[in-house]
Each structure stands twice: as C-alpha cells, then as structure tokens.
Amino acid sequence: MTMLEDKIVLVTGAGAGIGRAIALGMAEVGASIAAADIELAAAQRTATEAAGNNRRAIAIEADCGDVASIDAMVARTIAELGRLDVIVNNAGVTRYAYIMDLTEADWDRIHRVNAKGVFFCLQRAAREMMKTGGGRIINIASISGRGYAGASNAAYAASKGAVISLTKMAAQQLGRYNINVNAICPGVTRTELGARNAVTRAAERGITVEELQAAQEAEIPIRRANTPEDIAAMAVFLASPGARNITGQSYNVDGGLVPS
User: Fold this and answer.
1) What is the dihedral of CA 172, 183, 73, 134, to 10 degrees?
2) Which of 130, 154, 204, 228 is 20 to 30 Å from 7 at the Cα level?
3) Quick check: helix, strand or coil at residue 247?
4) pLDDT computed for residue 201 by the predictor
5) Catalytic residue among 96, 98, 148, 156
6) Helix or strand holding residue 36 (H, E)
7) Quick check: 195 pLDDT over 80?
8) According to the model, what pLDDT value does residue 36 have?
C-alpha cells in the first residue's frame, strides 16, 4: 500500500514500543520517516528498519522536553527530507506510583515531556505546516487522561488529560490552515515501558507479572491488551486521506475498557 506515498512523517519516541510501531507502520504505506528519540541508537534501529521498506528514513536524537531540541528536530527533518506533512507526538515518560508518593520532581519530569513537550512539538510542526498548505498532527494521549483507574500515577493521568484538551483547542485554532489535530488514547498496551511498570505493580500486589497481566485482560471487554501495532494502525488511518475531515477527536484504542 502507498496511501502515504511522498509524505514526510516525524515520530517522536520512535526508538521502541508504540513509537517504533507507528514509524514502521507509516513506512509500510509509503511515508518517509524521521525517527526521533532521546536515545540515538534506538532511533537509528527504527530508521534502519523503516528504510528496509525502500523508504527514506533518518534518525534524530531529540529531547522532547527541551524546546531548543524540538526546534532542531523539526529543522533537521525539513532540511533532510524536504518538508513535514505529519507529526506523531508519541514521546512520553511515567513511573508507577501512589498519589501520595509522587514528588515535585516526578510531576516536573512527567509534565516536561508529556504536556510541555507535546505542546511545543505541535506548535513547531504547525508553524511549518502553515507554510506548505496543511498537515496532520497526531498526539498520543492515554485512557489515563479519561479517568482510567489503572493509570500508572496521577501526574501521568493529568498530563494525558492535558493532551486531550490541547488536541481539541489546537484543532479549533489550526483548522483554518488545513491542519488536522487528533489524539489516540491507548489502553493497556504491551510495551517495554509497560513491562517495567508491571514488575512494580505485581510486586506491590504479591503476584507474578503473568497473573497481573491476566487480571488486566480480564477487565477488557474484548479480552486482550493492545500490541503497539494496534495503536500504529489508528495513527496510519489518521494520517491517511480517509481522515481528511476528522479533527479535534481523541480516539480510545483500548478494547472497550473505558467509555470515550
């Protein structure tokens, strides 16, 4: 499939998990990829895989909590690939913690990337898209931002709620420039980050990780957790011509776990 032929897609947090799956999914349907990650080696692995689909792909080291780094990331994408058609704001951080155990440092670390970072990535990308006739902005939020009780922590939930609100406001203000802004809210997803949190959760409950995962899936109406590819499929759709009149929406991909 080549529905994104000649499109330039920048994915943050592309080194692993959901970001990696999104970058590879976009490449499979024809896009050229800028894979950005705070770990350059991880970004390079994703870019190499994406280029294996006979697409152009570059790796960029970027800290999405730092505005200067964000500016450099977007500038390099344009310098090397020509323009920016789609950005997927996927980079994010968290840790598993009870609300009363969260510190100021936890709050600042999480919001620096998950809220501040998403805003300035969106703003910087939109600035370029305004010059070229439009584009697509896809924010990775979470069902945690909709009140999911199984969120890793309250600060993380607040940061993802911010992304959902930002998506709505940005869609209203950027629509006149032919820029679509949407969000994806993953549910329980089997990623490296999720696996690390699962170890802590399981230990706290005195059960194995396997027992924890079985209990999580028992609560999901469709009885299975997401793979990163499930989120990638939605991202590819939101970047495609079929989603040209969709904006300001936040879509749960969670097997029916949380009402929209």
Assistant:
1) -40
2) 228
3) coil
4) 77
5) 156
6) strand 32-37
7) no
8) 98
